[in-house]
Amino acid sequence: MSEGLPAVYLARMDVEQAGLPFFMTWYEQKHGPDLIAAGFFSAQAYHSVVGEPFVCNVYEIESSEIFYTSAYQTARTPERDPDRPKILAGVSNRSNTVYEQVVTTGVMLPDVPWAAGGRRGQIDAPVISTVRFETSAEDDGAVVEWCRQVEFPRLEAGNGFRAARLCRQAGRLHPANPSDQPRWMLLIEWQDEGAAQSAGLSSEVSARLRAGPFDPSRIDYNLAVLVTSLRDSGD
Predict the structure, then answer these.
(1) What is the reported pLDDT for 81?
(2) Cis peptide bond prior to 6, omega within 30° of 0
(3) pLDDT of residue 116
């Protein structure tokens, strides 16, 4: 695991287009601030322009144990958040997944762990792409070495590349929405949408993965742009 970096929590869902303005107001003014108050380091809304689902919210947290705290559980109650039932009625295709950051490139590693107030190495790009893929656990070492020796150098050579993080599912499952997502995720940060698209979209990404020294059984891709970013103050 990349020392000192937080866990990455992704909440993905589709939102009925007619209800999207209400959803975003709720997220920016109520839900996001409540999560920060409950101990989240960041709450960022990304919207997919390639792939699905539409909403790809990215959070930085200490670990999945935060889901089991009273602060998080209370923030999700109708008493604390009266609009939440209406919001949930308008969303579908949900998944809630926590990953540890296994190996990174272009990321400034913390000199102080996030749990102690450091905030180096945060996800802050205006555009991200994520590749989620499933492999056998016996191929874990091959996945890491492929990223280090093949995929990371290829990404680093591209214009508009900022950082990449190879992440693996970790911790306890979300208590309300256990994830059905693949175990691995490659999260790539870009300067802009054009840079991300020039690096190859779904079919090209899938071809590169299948050419690696492992056999992925599932590959999902999306490219998303930042809409809202909320952060705690750190130290």
Answers:
(1) 95
(2) no
(3) 87
Query: Do the Cβ atoms of 114 and 6 come closer than 8 Å?
Result: yes
Q: Where is 132: in which H helix or E strand?
A: strand 127-134
CB burial readout 35-60, b (16+ within 10 A) else e: bbebebbbbbbbbbeebebbbbbbbb
Task: Of 166, 176, 188, give the one whose Cα is nearest residue 50.
Answer: 188
Could you give the CA distance from residue 73 to residue 201 in angstroms, rounded to a whole number? 38
Contact between 66 and 39 (Cβ < 8 Å): yes
Read off φ and ψ for residue 149, nearest 5 degrees: -95, -25
Query: Which regions of the chain are under pLDDT 70?
Result: 1-2, 234-235
CA distance 33 to 51: 27
Residue 105, both tokens:
């490139």
pLDDT in tens, 97-125: 999 999 999 999 999 889 888 899 999 99
Strand partners, 221: 131
The sign of the CA dihedral 170, 76, 175, 57 is negative
Q: Which residue has the tokens 């016996």?
A: 138
User: In angstroms, how far is CA 200 from the centroid of its own chain?
Assistant: 19
Q: How far apart are CA 58 and CA 35, in angstroms?
A: 12
- Summarised one tens digit per residue, pLDDT across range 27-41 is 999 999 999 999 999
Q: Closest by alpha carbon to 146, among 99, 102, 193, 83? A: 102
Residue 177 confidence (pLDDT): 85
**Interval 74-92: pLDDT, tens:** 999 999 999 999 999 999 9
Beta bridge partners, 9, equal 59, 98
